[in-house]
Amino acid sequence: MRTNLITLVLFATIGTQAYSIEECDILASLEADPSSVSSPVAFNDIQPRAVIDACTKAIAANDADQSRYLLHRARGYLKGGEGEKALLDLENAHKLGYPAATFGLATAYYLGDDVTQNFEKARVLFIEAYENGVLWSAWGLSLLYSNEMYENYDLGKAKKWGVRFKNGY
């Protein structure tokens, strides 16, 4: 139950309006993605098969935005219960240098879903994503530092990161 709550918090969405290029963007855009070209889609609203199909087509047709489509398809796989495929897409998008995928990978390591939980790896990836413009990583770091199971548990750091997220910097 706690894992699902954290997943919802980290993958939560609010309405922002932008114009989209591909159906893949329309079906699975992530609020945490500063490079998003479409309105975000709440994780609970993702239709896995439609996302996977649309994003697979977009990946095959467009090299320039492939990393973003991999991130979106990972959300479809995750919602559809195909965690290993989701993790592979996140890793590939991260290797292509897509900051929101780095955030997604950090979240996976923090939660330990479909990958061995690794708080230190999550911390490093959250910081990398934050330094590359993913504000939601500050929230991830706040959750990490406030987790009593983390060996570097530190409520002061948790508060600092939480303030950064709240204040948008």
Structural class call reads mainly alpha
The gyration radius over C-alpha positions equals 15 Å
Strand content: under 5%
Q: Kindly state the percentage of residues in helix.
A: 55-70%
Mean pLDDT metric? 90
Give, in order, the helices and strands: HHHHHHHHH
Distance between the termini: 30 Å
User: Number of helix segments?
Assistant: 9
Please outline the helices and strands.
Blueprint: H1 2-10, H2 23-28, H3 48-61, H4 66-79, H5 83-95, H6 99-111, H7 119-131, H8 136-145, H9 155-167
Key structural traits:
mainly alpha, 169 residues, globular, 9 helices, disordered N terminus
How do you describe this structure in short?
62% of the residues lie in helices and 0% in strands. It is an all-alpha fold and 169 residues long.
Describe it.
- This protein is mainly alpha-helical and 169 residues long.
- 62% of the residues lie in helices and 0% in strands.
- It has 9 helices and no strands.
- It has helices at residues 2-10, 23-28, 48-61, 66-79, 83-95, 99-111, 119-131, 136-145, 155-167.
- The protein is globular and about 45 Å long.
